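[Discussion] Sanity-checking designs against the backbone

I'm trying to build intuition for which residues belong where. Below is a structure token string of 305 positions. I'd appreciate it if someone posts a full sequence so I can compare it with mine line by line.
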């Protein structure tokens, strides 16, 4: 069973506004609300592709209740750890030319709630993979990741990491099964700027040497790369009109895992990841994923020498 961990979930509010001016009433349209958080997105996309998972996370207030209820409606099992402050709401505004992102900090998570999650992970009996995604909320120090990793090693749980924290570099000593950075995170965390394919080859080999057993590097409209320590593969990206980048990377990861972990067809997994991420980026929230199959037909995977 796959478990996903979202320590700082959110409700994503996506809408359009033809105007974006100060001190006036800007009328919005087509507002959509979705249960969100990187690990939650992974669970939702896995469910779409027929792979069950369990979502772990800290939830609070009316917003946290909304997320748990929505996940239940979508048949995603959740083990919530409740906190006192409301779960955050993030806002994404598109004015047909630009996307504006307003991401909130999130609630305070007490030591007691943190211990509750640790005890839950210790008690898991069917967890084969744990996907840790997203940011940490107030109250949680980054050494919390180390504590979780140590438990996973004791229980032989494979860990998949998708975090933007600079702690990622240190966490590679635990040899995670897979990490999914993007090019901006590679520069911010590891100090390597990616300008071309030569840079990609250098970066993925460095990350492998530090400890990542597999690397899925996402590059937005420039496609994605996968490296397993032996071979480097590239998959291009379909051309789309970007409406919202929210959830796209998480969706790519989930689509990739739905194939790579269970069927082993790497080329198909990469195409599915690229197509799913693009289809989400051209929709609001997670979208309907109705274009994935068509996109997969036009995508190409190559081995990079």
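Best answer:
Here's mine. Compare freely.
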């Amino acid at each position: 069973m796959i478990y996903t961990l979202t320590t700082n979930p959110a409700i994503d509010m996506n809408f359009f506004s033809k105007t974006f001016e100060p001190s006036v009433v800007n009328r919005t349209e087509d507002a959509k609300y979705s249960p969100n958080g990187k690990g939650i997105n992974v669970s939702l996309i896995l469910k779409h592709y027929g792979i069950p998972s369990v979502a772990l996370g800290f939830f609070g207030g009316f917003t946290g209740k909304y997320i748990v209820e929505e996940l239940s409606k979508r048949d995603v099992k959740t083990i919530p750890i409740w906190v006192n402050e409301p779960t955050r709401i993030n806002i994404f505004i598109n004015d047909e030319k630009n996307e504006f992102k307003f991401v909130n900090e999130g609630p305070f998570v007490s030591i007691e709630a943190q211990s509750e999650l640790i005890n839950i992970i210790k008690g898991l009996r069917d967890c084969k993979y744990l996907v840790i995604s997203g940011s940490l909320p107030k109250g949680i120090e980054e050494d919390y990741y180390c504590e979780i990793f140590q438990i996973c090693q004791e229980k032989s749980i494979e860990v998949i990491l998708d975090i933007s924290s600079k702690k990622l570099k240190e966490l590679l000593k635990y040899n995670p099964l897979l990490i999914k950075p993007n090019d901006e995170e590679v520069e911010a965390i590891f100090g390597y700027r990616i300008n071309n394919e030569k840079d990609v080859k250098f970066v993925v080999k460095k990350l492998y040497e530090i400890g990542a057993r597999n690397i899925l590097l996402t590059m937005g409209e420039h496609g994605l790369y996968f490296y397993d320590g032996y071979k480097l593969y590239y998959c291009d990206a379909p051309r789309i009109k970007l409406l919202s980048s929210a959830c796209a990377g998480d969706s790519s990861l989930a689509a990739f895992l739905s194939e790579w972990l269970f069927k082993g067809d790497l080329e198909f997994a990469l195409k599915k990841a690229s197509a799913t991420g693009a289809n989400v980026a051209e929709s609001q929230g997670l979208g309907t994923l109705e274009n994935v199959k068509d996109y997969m037909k036009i995508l190409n995977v190559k081995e990079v020498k």
